[in-house]
TrEMBL record:
Residues 60-294 form the Radical SAM core domain. It holds the Pfam family TRAM_2. One of its GO terms (molecular function) is protein methylthiotransferase activity. Its EC number is 2.8.4.4. GO terms for cellular component: cytosol; ribosome. SUPFAM superfamilies: Radical SAM enzymes. PROSITE patterns: MOAA_NIFB_PQQE (PS01305), MTTASE_RADICAL (PS01278), RADICAL_SAM (PS51918), TRAM (PS50926). It comes from Eiseniibacteriota bacterium. One of its GO terms (biological process) is molybdopterin cofactor biosynthetic process. This is 30S ribosomal protein S12 methylthiotransferase RimO. Keywords: 4Fe-4S, Cytoplasm, Iron, Iron-sulfur, Metal-binding, Ribonucleoprotein, Ribosomal protein, S-adenosyl-L-methionine, Transferase. Residues 293-365 form the TRAM domain. It is an enzyme of class 2 (transferase). The gene is rimO. Gene3D superfamilies: Nucleic acid-binding proteins (2.40.50.140), tm_1862 like domain (3.80.30.20).
Length: 365
Protein backbone atom coordinates (compact mmCIF):
# COMPACT_ATOMS: atom_id res chain seq x y z
CA UNK A 1 0.00 0.00 0.00
CA UNK A 2 2.92 2.35 0.67
CA UNK A 3 5.73 1.45 -1.70
CA UNK A 4 3.72 0.36 -4.73
CA UNK A 5 5.82 1.17 -7.83
CA UNK A 6 9.06 0.75 -5.88
CA UNK A 7 8.19 -2.90 -5.30
CA UNK A 8 7.80 -3.54 -9.00
CA UNK A 9 11.04 -1.75 -9.72
CA UNK A 10 13.17 -3.33 -6.99
CA UNK A 11 11.79 -6.89 -7.13
CA UNK A 12 11.62 -8.01 -10.77
CA UNK A 13 10.10 -11.36 -9.77
CA UNK A 14 6.91 -9.61 -8.68
CA UNK A 15 4.19 -9.69 -11.36
CA UNK A 16 1.59 -7.51 -9.66
CA UNK A 17 1.05 -5.28 -6.66
CA UNK A 18 -2.46 -4.96 -5.23
CA UNK A 19 -3.45 -2.50 -2.51
CA UNK A 20 -5.18 -3.33 0.76
CA UNK A 21 -8.39 -1.80 -0.55
CA UNK A 22 -8.39 -3.92 -3.68
CA UNK A 23 -8.49 -7.40 -2.17
CA UNK A 24 -11.54 -8.24 -4.28
CA UNK A 25 -9.45 -7.56 -7.40
CA UNK A 26 -6.85 -10.26 -6.70
CA UNK A 27 -8.45 -12.96 -8.89
CA UNK A 28 -8.97 -10.53 -11.76
CA UNK A 29 -5.37 -9.32 -11.52
CA UNK A 30 -4.08 -12.91 -11.43
CA UNK A 31 -6.02 -13.71 -14.58
CA UNK A 32 -4.49 -10.68 -16.29
CA UNK A 33 -1.02 -11.88 -15.33
CA UNK A 34 -1.75 -15.37 -16.66
CA UNK A 35 -3.01 -13.96 -19.96
CA UNK A 36 -0.06 -11.58 -20.33
CA UNK A 37 2.94 -12.96 -18.41
CA UNK A 38 5.15 -10.14 -19.66
CA UNK A 39 2.94 -7.45 -18.10
CA UNK A 40 3.53 -6.05 -14.63
CA UNK A 41 0.42 -4.73 -12.94
CA UNK A 42 0.03 -2.02 -10.32
CA UNK A 43 -3.47 -1.77 -8.87
CA UNK A 44 -3.42 0.31 -5.68
CA UNK A 45 -6.23 2.62 -4.64
CA UNK A 46 -7.52 4.00 -1.33
CA UNK A 47 -6.60 1.85 1.70
CA UNK A 48 -8.62 -1.11 2.80
CA UNK A 49 -12.24 -1.87 3.40
CA UNK A 50 -13.70 -4.79 5.30
CA UNK A 51 -14.07 -7.64 2.84
CA UNK A 52 -17.34 -9.54 3.09
CA UNK A 53 -16.23 -13.15 3.39
CA UNK A 54 -19.59 -14.74 4.12
CA UNK A 55 -19.78 -16.16 0.60
CA UNK A 56 -16.22 -17.39 0.17
CA UNK A 57 -13.18 -17.98 2.31
CA UNK A 58 -10.53 -20.57 3.00
CA UNK A 59 -10.00 -21.58 6.63
CA UNK A 60 -6.36 -22.30 7.41
CA UNK A 61 -6.82 -23.20 11.09
CA UNK A 62 -7.78 -26.62 12.46
CA UNK A 63 -11.39 -27.56 11.81
CA UNK A 64 -12.67 -26.65 15.29
CA UNK A 65 -11.33 -23.09 15.49
CA UNK A 66 -11.54 -20.16 13.08
CA UNK A 67 -10.71 -16.48 12.91
CA UNK A 68 -13.67 -14.22 12.19
CA UNK A 69 -12.85 -10.72 10.95
CA UNK A 70 -15.49 -8.24 12.02
CA UNK A 71 -13.87 -5.00 10.84
CA UNK A 72 -10.79 -3.53 9.21
CA UNK A 73 -8.99 -0.23 9.65
CA UNK A 74 -8.94 2.08 12.66
CA UNK A 75 -10.18 5.55 13.62
CA UNK A 76 -7.58 6.03 16.36
CA UNK A 77 -4.40 7.85 15.41
CA UNK A 78 -1.73 6.43 17.70
CA UNK A 79 1.53 8.17 16.84
CA UNK A 80 3.49 4.92 16.47
CA UNK A 81 1.00 3.17 14.19
CA UNK A 82 0.92 3.00 10.39
CA UNK A 83 -2.33 1.00 10.20
CA UNK A 84 -4.66 3.91 9.29
CA UNK A 85 -2.45 4.71 6.29
CA UNK A 86 -2.34 1.08 5.20
CA UNK A 87 -5.84 -0.04 6.14
CA UNK A 88 -7.80 3.21 6.26
CA UNK A 89 -10.46 4.26 8.74
CA UNK A 90 -12.66 1.78 10.56
CA UNK A 91 -14.79 -0.26 8.18
CA UNK A 92 -17.13 -2.71 9.88
CA UNK A 93 -18.87 -5.61 8.26
CA UNK A 94 -22.66 -5.59 8.63
CA UNK A 95 -23.74 -7.56 11.67
CA UNK A 96 -25.87 -9.87 9.54
CA UNK A 97 -22.88 -10.70 7.35
CA UNK A 98 -20.69 -11.64 10.32
CA UNK A 99 -23.43 -13.81 11.80
CA UNK A 100 -24.01 -15.54 8.47
CA UNK A 101 -20.34 -16.42 8.16
CA UNK A 102 -20.26 -17.63 11.77
CA UNK A 103 -23.24 -19.91 11.11
CA UNK A 104 -21.50 -21.42 8.10
CA UNK A 105 -18.33 -21.94 10.12
CA UNK A 106 -20.32 -23.65 12.86
CA UNK A 107 -22.00 -25.90 10.30
CA UNK A 108 -18.52 -26.88 9.11
CA UNK A 109 -17.50 -27.94 12.62
CA UNK A 110 -16.02 -24.77 14.12
CA UNK A 111 -16.53 -24.59 17.88
CA UNK A 112 -14.35 -21.62 18.77
CA UNK A 113 -14.59 -18.24 17.05
CA UNK A 114 -11.68 -15.80 17.29
CA UNK A 115 -12.99 -12.31 16.61
CA UNK A 116 -10.39 -9.99 15.08
CA UNK A 117 -10.13 -6.38 13.93
CA UNK A 118 -7.65 -3.59 14.44
CA UNK A 119 -10.09 -2.19 17.04
CA UNK A 120 -12.78 -4.70 17.98
CA UNK A 121 -14.52 -2.58 20.60
CA UNK A 122 -15.35 0.12 18.02
CA UNK A 123 -17.06 -2.42 15.77
CA UNK A 124 -20.13 -0.95 14.12
CA UNK A 125 -19.54 2.72 14.90
CA UNK A 126 -19.11 3.57 11.22
CA UNK A 127 -22.29 1.71 10.19
CA UNK A 128 -24.62 2.27 13.11
CA UNK A 129 -23.29 5.35 14.90
CA UNK A 130 -22.41 3.32 17.98
CA UNK A 131 -20.50 0.20 18.90
CA UNK A 132 -22.49 -2.93 18.14
CA UNK A 133 -20.01 -5.42 19.57
CA UNK A 134 -22.35 -6.28 22.47
CA UNK A 135 -25.19 -7.07 20.06
CA UNK A 136 -22.87 -9.02 17.79
CA UNK A 137 -21.59 -11.17 20.66
CA UNK A 138 -25.12 -12.01 21.77
CA UNK A 139 -26.05 -12.97 18.21
CA UNK A 140 -22.97 -15.18 17.86
CA UNK A 141 -23.65 -16.79 21.24
CA UNK A 142 -27.05 -17.91 19.97
CA UNK A 143 -25.52 -20.03 17.18
CA UNK A 144 -25.72 -23.75 17.79
CA UNK A 145 -22.37 -25.55 17.79
CA UNK A 146 -20.36 -22.47 18.79
CA UNK A 147 -18.94 -23.06 22.28
CA UNK A 148 -16.27 -20.38 22.79
CA UNK A 149 -16.14 -16.82 21.46
CA UNK A 150 -12.83 -15.03 21.99
CA UNK A 151 -12.48 -11.30 21.36
CA UNK A 152 -9.07 -9.98 20.31
CA UNK A 153 -7.66 -6.44 20.05
CA UNK A 154 -9.95 -4.33 22.19
CA UNK A 155 -9.09 -0.71 23.04
CA UNK A 156 -9.12 0.53 26.65
CA UNK A 157 -11.02 3.69 25.69
CA UNK A 158 -13.97 1.99 24.01
CA UNK A 159 -15.02 -0.59 26.60
CA UNK A 160 -18.61 0.02 27.69
CA UNK A 161 -20.98 -1.10 30.42
CA UNK A 162 -23.03 -2.95 27.81
CA UNK A 163 -19.97 -4.90 26.68
CA UNK A 164 -19.00 -5.85 30.23
CA UNK A 165 -22.55 -7.10 30.80
CA UNK A 166 -22.27 -9.38 27.77
CA UNK A 167 -19.05 -10.87 29.15
CA UNK A 168 -20.87 -11.40 32.45
CA UNK A 169 -24.02 -12.94 31.02
CA UNK A 170 -22.99 -14.95 27.94
CA UNK A 171 -21.29 -18.18 28.97
CA UNK A 172 -19.87 -18.71 25.48
CA UNK A 173 -17.90 -15.44 25.58
CA UNK A 174 -14.53 -16.41 27.01
CA UNK A 175 -13.32 -14.88 30.27
CA UNK A 176 -10.39 -13.52 28.33
CA UNK A 177 -9.69 -9.86 27.59
CA UNK A 178 -7.12 -8.88 24.97
CA UNK A 179 -6.45 -5.20 25.58
CA UNK A 180 -3.14 -3.65 24.44
CA UNK A 181 -2.18 -0.98 26.99
CA UNK A 182 1.13 0.04 25.32
CA UNK A 183 2.38 2.00 28.37
CA UNK A 184 1.26 3.20 31.78
CA UNK A 185 2.73 6.66 32.40
CA UNK A 186 0.56 9.58 31.36
CA UNK A 187 3.38 11.42 29.52
CA UNK A 188 4.01 8.33 27.36
CA UNK A 189 0.30 7.73 26.78
CA UNK A 190 -0.07 11.34 25.61
CA UNK A 191 2.92 11.09 23.27
CA UNK A 192 1.50 7.86 21.90
CA UNK A 193 -1.92 9.57 21.54
CA UNK A 194 -3.69 6.68 23.25
CA UNK A 195 -6.57 8.89 24.46
CA UNK A 196 -6.59 7.28 27.91
CA UNK A 197 -4.82 7.89 31.21
CA UNK A 198 -3.23 5.37 33.51
CA UNK A 199 -6.06 5.82 36.02
CA UNK A 200 -8.61 5.00 33.31
CA UNK A 201 -6.86 1.76 32.41
CA UNK A 202 -6.35 0.67 35.99
CA UNK A 203 -9.99 1.36 36.78
CA UNK A 204 -11.10 -0.70 33.76
CA UNK A 205 -8.93 -3.68 34.67
CA UNK A 206 -10.12 -3.53 38.28
CA UNK A 207 -13.72 -3.52 37.04
CA UNK A 208 -13.14 -6.44 34.70
CA UNK A 209 -11.52 -8.51 37.42
CA UNK A 210 -14.21 -7.76 39.99
CA UNK A 211 -17.12 -8.51 37.65
CA UNK A 212 -15.58 -11.36 35.64
CA UNK A 213 -14.07 -13.79 38.14
CA UNK A 214 -11.27 -15.80 36.60
CA UNK A 215 -10.80 -13.44 33.65
CA UNK A 216 -7.39 -13.51 31.99
CA UNK A 217 -5.90 -10.20 30.88
CA UNK A 218 -3.68 -10.20 27.81
CA UNK A 219 -1.77 -7.06 26.84
CA UNK A 220 1.22 -5.58 25.05
CA UNK A 221 3.64 -2.80 25.91
CA UNK A 222 6.07 -0.72 23.88
CA UNK A 223 9.41 0.17 25.47
CA UNK A 224 11.91 2.68 24.15
CA UNK A 225 9.25 4.94 22.64
CA UNK A 226 10.65 8.41 21.82
CA UNK A 227 10.96 10.41 25.02
CA UNK A 228 10.68 7.42 27.36
CA UNK A 229 12.81 8.25 30.38
CA UNK A 230 14.28 5.90 32.96
CA UNK A 231 11.51 7.03 35.30
CA UNK A 232 8.86 6.17 32.70
CA UNK A 233 10.34 2.73 32.23
CA UNK A 234 10.72 2.12 35.98
CA UNK A 235 7.03 2.93 36.44
CA UNK A 236 6.11 0.53 33.64
CA UNK A 237 8.33 -2.17 35.12
CA UNK A 238 6.78 -1.65 38.54
CA UNK A 239 3.31 -1.91 37.05
CA UNK A 240 4.13 -5.21 35.34
CA UNK A 241 5.52 -6.62 38.57
CA UNK A 242 2.47 -5.63 40.57
CA UNK A 243 -0.48 -5.99 38.19
CA UNK A 244 -0.16 -9.78 37.79
CA UNK A 245 -1.30 -9.79 34.17
CA UNK A 246 -1.83 -13.24 32.71
CA UNK A 247 -0.25 -12.68 29.29
CA UNK A 248 2.19 -9.90 28.39
CA UNK A 249 4.01 -9.18 25.16
CA UNK A 250 6.55 -6.43 24.73
CA UNK A 251 7.95 -4.67 21.65
CA UNK A 252 11.05 -2.55 21.47
CA UNK A 253 9.83 0.56 19.65
CA UNK A 254 10.52 0.43 15.90
CA UNK A 255 10.68 3.67 13.95
CA UNK A 256 8.01 3.46 11.25
CA UNK A 257 8.30 5.81 8.28
CA UNK A 258 5.20 7.91 7.82
CA UNK A 259 4.19 8.00 11.49
CA UNK A 260 4.38 11.03 13.81
CA UNK A 261 6.55 9.11 16.29
CA UNK A 262 9.24 8.57 13.65
CA UNK A 263 9.77 12.34 13.54
CA UNK A 264 9.75 12.89 17.31
CA UNK A 265 12.74 14.13 19.24
CA UNK A 266 14.13 11.93 21.97
CA UNK A 267 14.64 8.74 19.99
CA UNK A 268 15.95 6.08 22.38
CA UNK A 269 19.16 4.21 21.44
CA UNK A 270 18.59 0.69 20.16
CA UNK A 271 20.69 -0.95 22.89
CA UNK A 272 18.61 0.81 25.56
CA UNK A 273 15.35 -0.31 23.94
CA UNK A 274 16.50 -3.93 23.80
CA UNK A 275 17.78 -3.81 27.37
CA UNK A 276 14.43 -2.50 28.61
CA UNK A 277 12.56 -5.16 26.70
CA UNK A 278 14.70 -7.91 28.26
CA UNK A 279 14.14 -6.48 31.73
CA UNK A 280 10.38 -6.24 31.29
CA UNK A 281 10.00 -9.75 29.92
CA UNK A 282 12.21 -11.15 32.71
CA UNK A 283 9.91 -9.48 35.21
CA UNK A 284 6.83 -10.87 33.48
CA UNK A 285 8.34 -14.37 33.46
CA UNK A 286 8.42 -14.26 37.26
CA UNK A 287 4.87 -12.94 37.35
CA UNK A 288 3.71 -15.70 35.01
CA UNK A 289 5.33 -18.33 37.23
CA UNK A 290 3.20 -17.07 40.11
CA UNK A 291 -0.02 -16.45 38.14
CA UNK A 292 -0.06 -19.79 36.34
CA UNK A 293 1.32 -21.63 39.38
CA UNK A 294 -2.05 -21.02 41.03
CA UNK A 295 -3.64 -23.35 38.48
CA UNK A 296 -1.84 -26.37 39.95
CA UNK A 297 -4.32 -28.68 41.61
CA UNK A 298 -7.37 -27.34 39.78
CA UNK A 299 -9.70 -29.44 37.67
CA UNK A 300 -10.49 -27.46 34.53
CA UNK A 301 -11.85 -27.82 31.03
CA UNK A 302 -9.24 -28.02 28.28
CA UNK A 303 -10.06 -27.60 24.61
CA UNK A 304 -7.98 -30.16 22.72
CA UNK A 305 -6.17 -28.76 19.67
CA UNK A 306 -3.89 -31.56 18.45
CA UNK A 307 -1.76 -34.55 19.34
CA UNK A 308 1.84 -33.99 20.41
CA UNK A 309 4.17 -35.70 17.89
CA UNK A 310 6.38 -38.33 19.46
CA UNK A 311 4.54 -38.32 22.80
CA UNK A 312 2.00 -41.12 22.91
CA UNK A 313 -1.13 -40.24 24.84
CA UNK A 314 -0.25 -36.55 25.12
CA UNK A 315 -2.38 -33.82 23.59
CA UNK A 316 -1.97 -30.08 23.44
CA UNK A 317 -4.84 -27.72 24.06
CA UNK A 318 -5.89 -24.63 25.97
CA UNK A 319 -7.95 -23.59 28.93
CA UNK A 320 -10.48 -20.82 28.35
CA UNK A 321 -7.90 -18.27 29.51
CA UNK A 322 -5.38 -19.17 26.80
CA UNK A 323 -5.74 -17.76 23.29
CA UNK A 324 -5.10 -19.83 20.19
CA UNK A 325 -1.58 -19.37 18.71
CA UNK A 326 -0.74 -16.33 20.87
CA UNK A 327 -0.47 -17.59 24.47
CA UNK A 328 0.83 -20.54 26.41
CA UNK A 329 -0.77 -23.97 26.05
CA UNK A 330 -1.96 -26.82 28.23
CA UNK A 331 -0.63 -30.35 27.73
CA UNK A 332 -2.89 -33.19 28.84
CA UNK A 333 -2.05 -36.85 29.16
CA UNK A 334 -4.65 -39.59 28.85
CA UNK A 335 -4.39 -42.60 31.17
CA UNK A 336 -3.21 -45.88 29.68
CA UNK A 337 -6.21 -47.46 28.00
CA UNK A 338 -8.15 -44.22 28.28
CA UNK A 339 -10.45 -42.90 25.59
CA UNK A 340 -9.05 -41.40 22.42
CA UNK A 341 -9.38 -37.64 22.36
CA UNK A 342 -10.52 -35.63 19.37
CA UNK A 343 -9.41 -32.16 18.33
CA UNK A 344 -12.06 -29.66 19.35
CA UNK A 345 -13.34 -31.59 22.35
CA UNK A 346 -13.29 -30.05 25.81
CA UNK A 347 -12.02 -32.56 28.38
CA UNK A 348 -11.69 -32.35 32.13
CA UNK A 349 -8.12 -32.27 33.36
CA UNK A 350 -6.34 -31.93 36.68
CA UNK A 351 -3.40 -29.52 36.45
CA UNK A 352 -0.28 -31.01 37.97
CA UNK A 353 2.42 -28.58 36.93
CA UNK A 354 2.91 -25.04 35.65
CA UNK A 355 5.92 -24.14 33.54
CA UNK A 356 5.86 -20.33 33.50
CA UNK A 357 3.47 -19.97 30.54
CA UNK A 358 2.36 -23.58 29.95
CA UNK A 359 0.37 -26.06 32.03
CA UNK A 360 0.59 -29.84 32.31
CA UNK A 361 -2.38 -31.95 33.35
CA UNK A 362 -3.94 -35.40 33.45
CA UNK A 363 -7.30 -36.16 31.86
CA UNK A 364 -9.89 -37.04 34.49
CA UNK A 365 -12.97 -39.17 33.94
Amino acid sequence: QRFQAELLQEIPEVDAVVGTGQVDAIVRVMNRVLRSPESRILEVGPPGTAVDLAEHRAVSTPRHVAYLRIADGCDFRCTFCIIPKLRGDLRSRPLESVVLEARRLAEAGVRELLLIAQDSTSYGEDLYGESRLPQLLRALASIGGVEWIRVHYTHPKTWSEALIQVFEEEAKVCRYVDIPLQHVTDPMLRRMRREVRRADMERLIETLRSRLPGVAIRTHFIVGFPGETEEDFDQLLGYVRGAELDHVGCFAYSREDGTPAARMAGQVPERVKLSRRRALMAAQRKVAESVWGRWVGREVGVRVDATVPGRAGVWVGRVEQQGYEVDGVTYVRTPVGGRELRAGDVVGARIGRARHYDLDGEVVA
